[in-house]
Design goal:
It holds the Pfam family Cupin_8. The chain contains 14 helices and 14 strands. By secondary structure, it is of the alpha+beta class. The radius of gyration is 29 Å and the shape is elongated.
């Protein structure tokens, strides 16, 4: 990972101004060690000191929504893999008590299995959202304590006074504050959030693996038009590299952090993260809109979208050419990969061809030049332009295009090749960053970009 993307650790919480100017503005995660250990919740919600009884008394039979998944302990974010099921908060607390008792009796839940465990019964627990769902398949995920956008969704406002607003967020317009609580080991699928996030650990331990937005191609994001577009389509616990070949490089772009009770992690918008929670973990997170998104005017969206896609396409073209030039001189180079080499040969020998083999040069440009070769050739022309005087440049192009019976046909052939190359790079960008296989008009010139 680049040095500019290194995750910083702070032993004390900065001021709101320092956070905004020195940390948040970098759009890079940061760990704040022990910054919320003074919360009343850290002491009152601790299961070792009566925290479950306290929470049960405080919230009681208030209804909350539990995420129920048959793929537990892995909880995938798309709607096809889980359901939101209402249940009394006290019922979930009962599951937690039962699980802690089982752990104490060395009958803990095996995180690599699913379904019921011997001797367990949903009916005996007093609640059965699914006939075959076990308590370990339930996770209180994103249960609102505060929701500025929809106050009707707030389910746990009574816990608000046990948590204190972190100083770094005092000037933020919060979108929501949420409770996350699991009674057994749990893992969230890799995903990103459209808000800045401060994840605070109240009790237990979480491991968070993070990837910068630039690593999206390695994580194969879900299609942008889908309902789970912010999730990775790769099952990172058991990836199929035949389906997702780039995923084998994903960990090279990742960073892992361990969070204990009292710690907090700043996760900027757009950063993919996968969270592993130990047995019985409670966390509270704060979401707020970034200053970048807040300052974007709606009427500028189309312009910024085109600029960003153009930048990504240019980067993809550069990367393809870099890969081609690096491997071009290897002995095992396949003959089908020669179009890029043709472009270099045409440039390096262009003057010789102009004087001695004009018709051969014409045939190469009009009929044999591949899209990659056209891109390489014009980039070499740009290098010549930067190194020579205007007079020399004019002489070169007069000689070069003078060999063609139709100079406009030659220019069209080169430009068509360049556009075909850029079109394929653009398709790759859409596939890598937006998800989905987008078809574009096919141009039968040379071969596709690998």
């Amino acid at each position: 990972m680049e040095d500019s993307l290194r995750i910083q650790r702070f032993q004390q919480l900065p001021s709101a101004t320092e956070f905004a100017s020195q940390i948040e503005s970098r759009n890079v995660p940061a760990v704040f060690v022990g910054c919320v250990k003074g919360w009343e919740a850290v002491a009152k919600w601790n299961p070792s000191s009566g925290g479950l009884e306290y929470l049960e008394d405080r919230v009681g039979s208030f209804m909350v929504e539990a995420m129920v998944s048959r793929t537990a302990p892995v909880f995938y974010g798309d709607l096809r893999s889980h359901e939101r099921v209402p249940l009394p908060f006290s019922t979930f607390i009962g599951f937690c008590k039962q699980h802690r008792q089982n752990v104490g009796n060395s009958c803990s839940f095996n995180s690599n299995s699913g379904g019921h465990q011997p001797g367990e019964s949903d009916t005996e627990q007093g609640y059965s959202p699914f006939v075959d769902a076990a308590p370990q398949q339930m996770y209180l995920a994103q249960v609102p304590i505060i929701n500025a956008e929809n106050e009707d969704r707030v389910q746990l406002e009574t816990l608000r006074e046990d948590i204190q607003m972190p100083a770094i967020l005092e000037e933020k317009n919060l979108s929501s504050v949420n409770l996350w609580m699991n009674n057994a080991q749990a893992r969230s699928s890799a995903h990103y959030d459209p808000h800045n996030n401060l994840l605070c650990i109240v009790t237990g331990r979480k491991q968070v693996v993070l990837w910068p937005p630039s690593a999206s191609p390695m994580l194969y994001p879900m299609p942008i038009y889908g309902e789970a577009s912010n999730h990775s389509s790769v099952a990172l616990e058991n990836p199929d590299f035949s389906v997702h070949p780039r995923a084998k490089y994903s960990m090279q772009y990742s960073k892992k952090v361990i969070l204990h009770a009292g710690d907090a992690l700043f996760i900027p918008e757009g950063w993919f993260h996968q969270v592993d929670s130990d047995d019985f973990t409670i966390a509270v997170n704060y979401w707020w809109r970034s200053s970048i998104i807040s300052s974007l005017a709606d009427h500028m969206d189309a312009y910024y979208l085109r600029r960003i896609l153009r930048r990504l396409t240019d980067r993809e073209m550069d990367q393809v050419l870099l890969q081609g030039s690096t491997a071009m001189w290897r002995q095992e180079r396949n003959i089908s990969e020669l179009p890029c080499k043709k472009g270099i040969v045409i440039h390096s020998c262009s003057i010789t061809f102009q004087h001695n083999f004009p018709k051969t040069l014409e045939a190469l440009i009009l009929h044999l030049l591949s899209p990659v070769g056209a891109e390489v050739l014009t980039r070499k022309f740009d290098e010549i332009d930067q190194q020579n005087t205007e007079e020399d440049r004019n002489k070169f192009y007069q000689v070069f295009y003078g060999v063609f019976d139709n100079q406009f046909a030659a220019m069209d052939a080169i430009l068509n090749g360049k556009e075909s190359f850029a079109r394929q790079a653009f398709k790759n960008v859409l596939d890598k960053y937006l998800g989905g296989n987008f078809d574009v008009p096919k141009v039968c010139v040379g071969r596709d970009i690998p």
